[in-house]
asparaginase
Amino acid sequence: AVPHVSSSCKGHTHQNGNLPNVTIFGTGGTIASKGTSNTQTTNYKVGVTIEALVEAVPELCNISNVSGLQVSNVDSGSINSTILLHLARYVNADMANPISHGSVVTHGTDTLEETAFFLDLTVKTHKPVVMTGAMRPSTAISADGPLNLYQAVKLAGSDEARDRGVLIVLNDRIGSAYTTTKNNANSLDTFYATEQGQLGFFIDQVPKFYSSPSTPRNKPHFSIGDADFLPQVDILYGYQDANPALVEASVRSGAKGIIFAGVGAGGWSESGLKAAQRMYNETGIPMVFSRRTEDGFAGGDSIYSFQMTSGFLNPQKARIMLQLALLENYGNEEIRALFYGQ
Ligand SMILES: NC(=O)C[C@H](N)C(=O)O
């Protein structure tokens, strides 16, 4: 269950029955960070609480009865599977509460798409679940966090956002957890979608969707049970002359599956593939070939029968899906079919 959270709107002792109830789950990231001056936009420190984030945007209380819960307060590179599993349980419980209209998760942008995709595959709800973050710390001139948070809460309180899976909001754009990825390490307008497109845009803080709700083809759902962590799945990056020994190193350190961020549409060197085949013969662990390019489809003819391909999923999303499939004890043929549908 979600620990009891009281309204974060100071002076609002009663819920306003005309406004939607929205819970914000804080996990950290730049949106929750502070620099030592208002021009500092690198090397700032995470640590601003979810209460302080909400207090900084009193306008949130005009559009929702907002409550906050601190799940973690870390850079998103430090989000681990234990935090993911807790977060999924909290959001599932919040969405099962009839009085909740939607959930918001604030998160570092570096791995935001991984958490969004994880929640998309593990939270069962028709209600809006919206993730947001920021590219500038809360102390910066023109910090982007406050308006991103406002738009995320607005979206979580909107009926039009239902039945669209987990949504990602940053810099006015509304994207799907399935297709949105971080594209630029520094700029504000970093989240946009792959070929499959954006879902909508904010005009004067009103969400405008381009189309009625739709669901990604063959989208699975995974129930996470009472797991405390996810199986180890490593990602190996493809490059010329990729070191074949890394496959074995990954297996020996406990990997239960490997994602290859392959060259082109999932390619890998011949010597690397032979090393992977040897490790596959020894362990039978699933090996899924994705792409190191920003966009595209990894699939088609594989050289070796053990190779699986990730379809449109990028390596980091393929990893989340493989972890969840392994957690649910999918066999290799089921995993192959799962990825074949993506
Ligand atoms: N813009 C950000 O949020 C980056 C930050 N390093 C993170 O936690 O992901």
The pocket of asparagine is lined by residues 29-30, 75-76, 108-110, 133, 135 (CB under 6 Å). The longest helix spans residues 81-96.
